[in-house]
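Allow me, if you will, to draw on your knowledge of protein folds for a short while. I have a record of one protein: its chain in single-letter code and its fold written as discrete structure tokens. The full record is reproduced below for your convenience:
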Amino acid sequence: MIKIPVNVAVGILLKPNGDVLLGQRPAGKPYEGYWEFPGGKVEPDESILDALKREFVEELGIHILSAEAWCGVEYVYPHAHVRLHFYISRHWQGEPQSLEGQAFAWQGAVGVTPLLPATIPLLEWLDLERYATLPAMYTAPV
């Protein structure tokens, strides 16, 4: 049976030091206990960015002030075919809270496990993005 892809808006909150926020999938959902970037399904007639903003208010209690489209990935799980639309946000209002009962963790070098399978290949790409934008911490004397 062919599964129709479900559009999902996914947000990467990126702090100036390069840390990103990961959430742990709650009990009762597929892949419960796995870590992923926060986000959710895009509703009919909703833009991906609007879905991202809505999901972050609902799940985290924060308002995305700006976000840039980063990449798209399709992944077929046993339970669903998802089309993930990733955005990076460096500017938001509020401090993330767990409004839907899931755990959250700010990560530099990602140390939480297990990771949702679709998340794993993105971490290497993300390292190139986030560490390329960090200011130099040390300048060698001339």
